[in-house]
RNA sequence: GCCGGAGUAGCUCAGUGGCAGAGCUUUCGAUUCGUAAUCGAAGGGUCGGGGGUUCGAAUCCCCCCUCCGGCUCCA
């Protein structure tokens, strides 16, 4: 899509567990079918283990469901899956039976044996397995006619497979079947849907349990659950799916991030603009969205003036029209227009996921219009900006991907070459390691995607920087160069947070709801012990507010213990308890989050002093 | 959009054909408390929505909506 960056959700599971070489544990060696011996907990060891476990699962399914068709069953991060067609979905009882059968197969220590067949033998051998037949035929075609197909067999059950495998099934120490899900054959939604069983397998029971604990931890951090518990945001049927309501506390977190973003955009030479939420359908025809992006747009609304208006799925056309509102000189460039622009995208219903995939979202969206010779510097500037912003927020970049020209693309070779040289050069000059995804760029230009890693090791894509040759063309953008010739500017789209929704969602999961003080919606809760202390507490609150601290007083007629508990559950960074002693000595009893106990007799001025000029961005008052 | 699961009070959940429940939250009353839950009472429900079966439906059937886990998509 022209100018369309869609922020991709990557909820890659964390790599936790004893894979870390720091663990220095003695790891069991496992022997593979190719005779080699590898550490069970090494990436390769785990990969083979999981792959073999998927075979055992398919073997169990075949034995329990005669006639089952099996498709593919690879190892994946943290586990494995296998796709089947048994003519109906699997039930939880089926899973129990499969699990039990697998344990039998493992107990029997069946040897995995390799065999090479000719294609014709393979086709004969798997004649009743249509998916395997298709794979064999595919191998034939793509390999220019592979001479043989590889098969692995244990105890009479065999599967098309390159291997290697464990020496025998008894080398599977710990596994668990996780869930069943539908999955299209070959990932194509036009193909029939198969039943996929996901499982996880580890080199030890301990490692398996550690993994399961990690999953529980992820569940505990789920931003949808924490959003409700901390009263940050919600959704309502009456509003519609994917359209969040920001409650005061969630809005405060978001506003704090937005304020930072606006401030830094000014520092980095961007000019704020505003654009409407709607535009006539003709605008979206010119931009190409109606041609390429229609299915992601809310339907048009018809107005009495005969025009059709459409809610914007992207901000770029508006910024482009601001650029085009007058003639531009080469001296004017680069022009950097920025907006926290709220867009609406009709995402398919099954793809919505809390704040992380929404239908209404606000991008920290900017468009840079520059001369071709300015592209490297502009990219560098964006990267610097990213670093400064994320240093403040306290995250990444932890993974950077450069995606190059896909097969189908617009724009001249000259421009592509320019951009594809500019991106790696800018990344190198910035000292950033990156991987290259060949052909994964957008059709209108190459891009950089940046992921950050959260507190439990998951990667999230946040920022994206995309060079665009298409929209300047479509809208006929020009500038007058020093030789008085009209030339076409290059456009760079970029979002650093990505979207406010997504970024807040990521931060909630990253911090498990315990925001650092500068982001915490309520930074300090004051708890007067008895009614007679309420007035004093109000005075303290007043002083702290004067320091810019967000303070709440809990003057409910509850016990101090309950009020402390509630403030803890709300994950307030500081709880100040005040009673007779504190009033007498002008002190407070400070309970800093996570410390588990209070520090008594802290002079109030000392506490307030820490917050001079606003609360600290990181860290808590030492206790 | 597709496959599977789920939807009962604000929240977490019990209730499988016969009077709709519990804990927390909320409100009221008492308690004025020293660091993660004081005591008591009350309120609160078209059992996601609509249709059907039945003497009788939260419970069985059909359609729809929403959420959850995947797939697909994320120009």
Features:
Threonyl-tRNA Synthetase, Chain A, domain 2, 3 domains, 623 residues, RNA-binding, 30 strands, BirA Bifunctional Protein, domain 2
What does this protein look like?
- The strands form 8 sheets. An 8-stranded mixed β-sheet has the order 13-17-18-25-22-21-19-20.
- Helix content is 34%, strand content 25%.
- α6 (223-229) packs across α14 (500-511) and α11 (375-393) packs across α12 (413-429).
- With 623 residues, it is α+β, with helices and mostly antiparallel strands.
- The longest helix is centred in the N-terminal third of the chain and has 22 residues, at 43-64.
- It is globular and about 85 Å long.
- It folds into 3 domains: 25-203, Threonyl-tRNA Synthetase, Chain A, domain 2 (2-Layer Sandwich); 230-510, BirA Bifunctional Protein, domain 2, CATH 3.30.930.10; 524-610, Rossmann fold (3-Layer(aba) Sandwich), CATH 3.40.50.
- The protein has 18 helices and 30 strands.
- It binds one RNA strand of 75 nucleotides through β9, β10, α6 and α16.
Fold blueprint:
Elements: E1 29-31, E2 37-39, H1 43-64, E3 69-70, E4 75-76, E5 79-85, H2 92-107, E6 113-118, H3 119-125, H4 130-142, E7 148-154, E8 157-160, E9 174-184, E10 193-202, H5 205-220, H6 223-229, E11 233-234, E12 245-246, H7 248-267, E13 271-272, E14 278-280, H8 281-287, H9 289-292, E15 301-302, E16 308-311, H10 316-323, E17 335-344, E18 360-370, H11 375-393, E19 399-403, H12 413-429, E20 435-437, E21 447-453, E22 459-468, H13 470-474, E23 479-480, E24 486-487, E25 490-499, H14 500-511, E26 524-528, H15 534-546, E27 551-553, H16 560-569, E28 574-578, H17 580-585, E29 587-592, E30 599-603, H18 604-610
Parallel strand pairs: 13-17, 19-20, 26-27, 26-28
Antiparallel strand pairs: 1-2, 3-5, 4-5, 5-10, 6-7, 7-8, 9-10, 11-12, 14-16, 15-16, 17-18, 18-25, 19-21, 21-22, 22-25, 23-24, 28-29, 29-30
The structure holds one RNA strand of 75 nucleotides.
